[in-house]
Amino acid sequence: MNISYEWLREYLDLNLSPRELAKYFDQIGLMVEAVKEIDGDTVYEIETYANRPDTLGHLGVARELAALLGLPLKSPSWPLAELDGLTTDLVDIQVLDSQLCPRYCGLVVKGVQVGPSPEWLKRRIEAVGLRSINNVVDISNYVCFSLGQPLHTFDFSQLKEARIIVRRARKGETLRTLDGQLLELTPDMLVIADESKPVALAGIIGGEESGINERTTDVFIESANFDPVSIRLTAKKLGLMTDASYRFERGVDINAAPLGAKMAASLLGQFGGKASRGLLDVYPNPRKPKSVPLRLKRVGELLGIEIPEEFVVRTLTALGLKLNEQKPGVWVTEIPSFRVDLEREADLIEEIARFFGYDRIPTEVTPARSFELPADERQDCLWLLKEVLFHYGFDEVINFSFGDREKEKIWHTGYEPIELQNPISSRASILRTSLLPGLVENTVWNYNREADGVHIFETGKIYFWEEDGKQREEWHLGLLTSGQREAKTWNQPARETDYFFLKGAIEDLFFYLGYEAPSFEPEDHSFFQTGQAVRISIKKEPVGYLGLLKSEIRQAYGLDKLVYGGELNLEVLFDRQPRPFAFAPVPRFPGVVRDLSFLVDSTKNFQDIYGQLKKLNVPYLERFEIYDRFEGESLASNQVSYSVRFYFRHESRTLQAEEVDRAMLDIISQLKSGLKIQLR
Amino acid sequence: MSSLQEKLEQYRQLFNDLAAKTKNSKEVEELKQTFLGRKKGYLTLLFDELKQLPPDDKRSAGEALNKFKTEIQQALSELEERCRRPEAEKPPTDLTLPGKKIYWGAPHPLTLFQKKIEKIFVSMGFSVEEGPEIETDYYNFEALNFPPYHPARDSWDTLYINDKLLLRTHTSPVQIRVMEKKKPPIRIIIPGKVYRRETPDPTHLPMFHQVEGLVVDRGITFAHLKGTLDYFIKALFGEKIKIRFRPSFFPFTEPSAEVDIECLACHGQDAQCRVCGGTGWKEILGAGLVDPQVFKNVNIDPEKYSGWAFGLGIDRTAMLAYEIPEMRYFYENDLRFLRQFNRK
């Protein structure tokens, strides 16, 4: 809202320069966003709030400043040049829906000479950022930006039968507006009609036919009050926003209507206009002022500082409230009709704080009767997970949660995506159902910008419809590795990433987060090359997958380099308790190490062999390491060679060689039966 | 006898000279043969000589010879070991060459900044709460005292899924969810993603991050809000930062405030400043005392309890802190941008 310094002076005897005044706006929350010099006037662009329609006119802003600066608020008089005829004889006003139009004031002004506005009026109109049109239109805008009361002026001769009917639109009715649009009206919309048809969309915009033009001599002034919700719904439905609708949907002072009409009629008098006698005021259910209780004690309790009673009374009175003292420090206040926002004690306390000055309220540490324990371990877990990945050299990315419906189709994530009703663009029309498409986009972006390799991860949610039609959001981890992992240096050749780098990182995630080692089962997946993907499970429950990205997907994104990707459902992990940590004593007696090399059938994969070794039931066996594996060369094609190092230890004495020998024999016999191994 | 000792010394010198020249395991093997060869090795021959010495001399000479043999064997095995190692690991001749580096991944700047904020509040006894990103109109608006069809909703432009569901426009619905299940005292912060139907520009994107704070207890005042935020902002931006509280409007707080910090780019010295527009201030958060209607909506008695809440845009605050000119950098995920933050 633009506020003019000169315009404010119609209501205030200001002895502050325009610069000095700017500071005071900020203090009471009328934030000055910009200050402009226009034609010798100073114009403040102030931020207004949805609950303060009274500050959408200069009078309301002047009232705030008057209260702050302790100045009297002037009320200019609006003398009328009057006709002989009574308004009621000249025009017939019927309000058929007093719910949507609680008050309607009208006056007829005859003999107006329509023409350009005088200089003073033009300056006012241009100061608030409008274009001067003609004296009649400018006057109605002047009233609107003075009082915050929107007006509408009709060419009286165009109103059939000199009738004004405030009613809901009939099905099929249309209205051509002042700006030439043809609106199709529906019965939920309130219109101003004459005898035959709508002439204006109530509180939003007038009709073209009944608008003011150069030939107009007689003007009908409408100064009315309309229901905020109805105005908002109609304006939204038709995609219209006008200075009038902006004010009405916020709530216009119900008592401003008569003054608005008189002010306009008085100003039209400067252009030969003579007003009909007696304001027509249809106000069937006059509203009682709201009354709100206020306790001085409560003011101090909430603000954290005792505010002097004298200050409270002075400020609220200056803002137009009437205070009726019930007992010392307790009042029932009567709220003026222009303050639609004041309804509860808390609202009054805000007024007191605002004028007292937020900067004068002390700063104190918030006391605590108890401190909160961490809500859960998820956040710690999430951070630890990230640290493991940083250690592996993965950079963290954050992508938008949106997805491209077309692009996600090539991924076949298997989830029913959640679509947005009003997306920003078709490329962001759904919520993502996997983190990998975003990671692949990041990879393309970086390869196009000189990257030699991309190793990234993201933790975030995916979103989908469950089978029962409920929405679900799930925390996931997406991982991607592609291209060069270590650059060539003087003492080392360049190294490319591979599947096992990614798998190692995932295995370590489980380890460092305290979960048992997951199992990896070869299983095809829509993201990955056939035979190049595994499912990751923990105790048979699937938690994710990893593999080599399908070449079709790479091609769709224009990626040449191989890409390895993986995704974990973190909900599955976080729902499980990590193994509790327990200290194990450091061994005091030396261990014994024995190596064993053997051949197994190549149909057994590593996980089978590891599983068998894990199951070994042998005394003193502390742990084992598989330190070598090879195939080919001298071996038969259906054989693989493994070398395993076994570590034996007794916790309270040194082991005898014979004991270890026996244990090794035991191991060999168990492996022979379990894996059909052949010793080498 | 002294001749044997002298020979020993000569051989020791010879061995060291030859050993210094060996370049590969073949040469080491040759050296080994030269000294320890079964028939003609120098040391083998010396041992032969030893046998002819008188018993008195034999002992001391024998000891010296054995010591030399051990020395040679050890030196040889070290040489062999060195040859077996790959070329790269041989001790370099130029000790000023760069050392070996291990790359650490970079945390995303928003993660980093969120972590910083969480740390400050956790140190004041707050816990970190979370909530869904897909919300209902009730939690996102109604329970927070936005009347239906009120223009106050216009500042929270919403992405809708259907008539019932929307993407949360702020983290405030989690306030309601927490107050519904937990009785005061409450002392929490709520970080997370939020969504607005905004046309992208340097400081607006359809998704960004917020952190919400909420305290509910007996006797909580506006002064407490001021004190806590004052501490928080100073912990984040340094003790000397200038802070300003000014009145504002949010449906879910009363009184409401907006908090500005001095412009870190111009400190109020540049009337043409592109960061603050010449005002010298940058708004960083909205706050206020919890509106009594919000308390009523979650069955907390506003006569017994009071509270404060605040909400801060993580992205925009991180932009100020790191002097990042455009918000889109956070979501482009350009490695040249991201990797700068593993030093922060």
Short description:
Chain A contains 20 helices and 33 strands. With 680 residues, chain A is of the alpha+beta class.
List the helices and strands and how they pair.
The complex is a heterodimer of chains A (680) and B (344).
Chain A: E1 2-4, H1 5-8, H2 18-27, E2 32-38, E3 41-46, H3 58-69, E4 82-86, H4 87-90, E5 92-95, E6 103-110, H5 119-127, H6 135-147, E7 152-155, E8 163-168, E9 174-176, E10 182-184, E11 190-193, E12 198-201, E13 205-206, E14 219-225, H7 228-238, H8 243-248, H9 257-268, E15 274-277, E16 280-282, E17 291-295, H10 296-303, H11 309-318, E18 322-327, E19 330-334, H12 345-356, H13 378-391, E20 395-396, E21 402-403, H14 405-409, E22 430-431, H15 436-447, E23 453-465, E24 471-486, E25 495-496, H16 499-512, E26 519-522, E27 528-538, E28 541-549, H17 551-556, E29 563-569, H18 570-574, E30 592-601, H19 606-615, E31 621-631, E32 639-648, H20 657-675, E33 678-679
Parallel strand pairs in A: 4-15, 5-8, 20-23
Antiparallel strand pairs in A: 1-3, 2-3, 6-14, 6-15, 6-16, 7-14, 8-11, 9-10, 11-12, 12-13, 17-19, 18-19, 21-22, 23-24, 24-25, 24-29, 26-27, 27-28, 28-29, 30-32, 30-33, 31-32
Helix pairs in contact in A: 3-11, 5-6, 6-9, 10-12, 11-12, 13-16
Chain B: H1 2-21, H2 25-36, H3 42-51, H4 55-84, H5 109-122, E1 127-128, E2 134-136, H6 137-140, E3 165-167, H7 173-181, E4 186-195, E5 207-217, H8 222-237, E6 243-250, E7 253-262, E8 281-290, H9 292-297, E9 306-313, H10 314-322, H11 329-332, H12 335-338
Helix pairs in contact in B: 1-4, 2-4, 3-4
Strand composition percent of chain B: 15-25%
Low-confidence stretches of chain B: none
Number of strands of chain B: 9
Cα radius of gyration of chain B in angstroms: 38 Å
Strand order in the sheet with the most strands of chain B: 1-4-5-9-8-7-6
| Largest sheet descriptor of chain B | 7 strands, mixed
Question: What Rg of chain A, in angstroms, do the CA atoms define?
Answer: 40 Å
How helix-rich are the residues of chain A, as a percent range? 25-40%
Mean pLDDT of chain A: 94
Task: Tally the beta strands of chain A.
Answer: 33
First-last Cα distance of chain A: 90 Å
How does the helix and strand content of chain B classify structurally? alpha+beta
* Average pLDDT over all residues of chain B: 89
What's the helix count of chain B?
A: 12
- Considering residues with a beta carbon less than 8 A from a beta carbon on another chain, report the largest interface and each chain's count: A-B, 94 and 98 residues
Percentage of residues assigned to helices of chain B:
40-55%
Structural class of chain A: alpha+beta
Order of helices and strands of chain B: HHHHHEEHEHEEHEEEHEHHH
